[in-house]
Amino acid sequence: MEFLEEFRAGAPSQRPAFGSCVLSWTTDMAAAEQQLCGKVLLASVLGGRLLVLPAMVVEAIGTTCRIPARRVRVEVAMLPSDFQITFADADDCTAVLGLSGNLACGDSKLSFRRWHRLVDADYAELIYLTRLGIDGLPPHDRGQEVIKQFLNKLDCQLVELYSPVDACGLEMMVWARNPNNIPKEYSVLFPEPEVVQESISDEDPDMAVCIASKPLPAPPVMKRGLTYRLVLHIMEVVDLTPPPHFGADGR
């Protein structure tokens, strides 16, 4: 039985250790960042995190700064921070930040820093400006949002989508992490859309009773979809990084 567990779908031994991707900015992300900036602190417990719970942090903030518990939310955060603290008011956030290193919580003290999107992130670059062609996308799946999703799978970011000249394919300019990793062919699976059951009119109560009396359908055993095979063309690559400098001796 333990042998079978090692080879079941999703078992740790069957999964890669690391992966990466590119995610494009959305309007929701921009709105969320705007809402969070100035109202979120990351807290660290000085000297360790033993016996410090989110409820204790809420109580310490309320006692010291007189901020009601309903106006602050404390959640466990990813290391190296211990807690993420979200305030309803930016002034409360600033007041607590001013107590960094001095706010007592149980037998420990808390240090604070403001949250921003650079926290815990590493710097990266997309250095190859690439003209890319995609053949094989069906006509109903050529919208810009679909293209952005697909390019993210290729570690690319859309710059400009050109108007199509025919029904065969699309051309676009993208930022690419590494054009050498863009395959020549690609298989794309589109799950079928959900079937929404039409609502029963109040004018037909007999039909509503009939449907309500039927047993609930069994949960699906699979999600059906359609697969399309695409052909990818790299038509031009512009490497904007400066060339290496060689001295007079060639080194």
Spatial order of strands in the largest sheet: 2-3-1-5-4
Radius of gyration from the alpha-carbon trace, in angstroms: 27 Å
Task: Give a count of the beta strands, DSSP E runs of length 2 or more.
Answer: 10
The CATH class designation of the largest domain is Alpha Beta
Summed over residues and divided by their number, the pLDDT gives a mean of 85
What overall form do the CA principal axes indicate? extended
Structural class call reads alpha+beta
CATH topology of the largest domain: Alpha-Beta Plaits
Oligomer: single chain
Overall description:
The structure is a single chain. Strands 2-3-1-5-4 form a five-stranded antiparallel β-sheet. A five-stranded antiparallel β-sheet has the order 7-8-6-10-9, with helices on one face. 14% of the residues are buried. With 251 residues, it is an alpha+beta fold. It has helices spanning 2-6, 27-36, 54-65, 90-97, 144-153, 205-213; strands spanning 40-46, 72-76, 83-87, 103-105, 108-114, 128-135, 156-161, 169-176, 185-191, 225-239. The protein folds into two domains: 28-114, Alpha-Beta Plaits, CATH 3.30.70.330; 124-193 and 223-242, Alpha-Beta Plaits (2-Layer Sandwich), CATH 3.30.70. 22% of the residues lie in helices and 28% in strands.
